[in-house]
Amino acid sequence: MTEYKRYLVTAALPYANGPVHIGHLAGVYVPADIYVRYLRMNKKDVVFVCGSDEHGVPITIKAMKENCTPQDIVDRYDAIIRKSFEEFGISFSNYSRTSHELHSKVSSDFFKTLYDKGEFVEQTSEQYYDEEAHQFLADRYIMGTCPKCGAEGAYGDQCEKCGSSLSPEELINPVSKLSGSALVKKPTKHWYLPLDKHEEFLRKWILEDHKEWKSNVYGQCKSWLDSGLHPRAVSRDLDWGVPLPLPNTEGKVLYVWFDAPIGYITSTQECTQDWEKYWKSEDTKLVHFIGKDNIVFHCIVFPVMLKAHGGYILPDNVPANEFLNLEGDKISTSRNWAVWLNEYLEDFKDQQDTLRYVLTANAPETKDNDFTWKDFQARNNNELVAILGNFINRVVVLTHKYFGGKVPAQGQLTETDKQALQAIVEAKENISKNIENYRFRDALKDAMQLARVGNKYLTETEPWKLIKTDEARVATILNVGLQITANCGILFEPFLPFSAKKILKMMNLASATWDDAGNVNLMEEGKEIAQAELLFRKIEDSEVDAQIERLKKIKAEQETQAAMNAPVAPQKETITYDDFAKMDIRMGTILAAERVPKTDKLMKLTVNVGIDTRTVVSGIAEHFTPEECVGRQVCVLVNLKPRTMKNIESQGMILMAENADGTLHFIETEKKIKDGSAIS
Question: 520 or 165, which is more confident?
Answer without folding.
Answer: 520
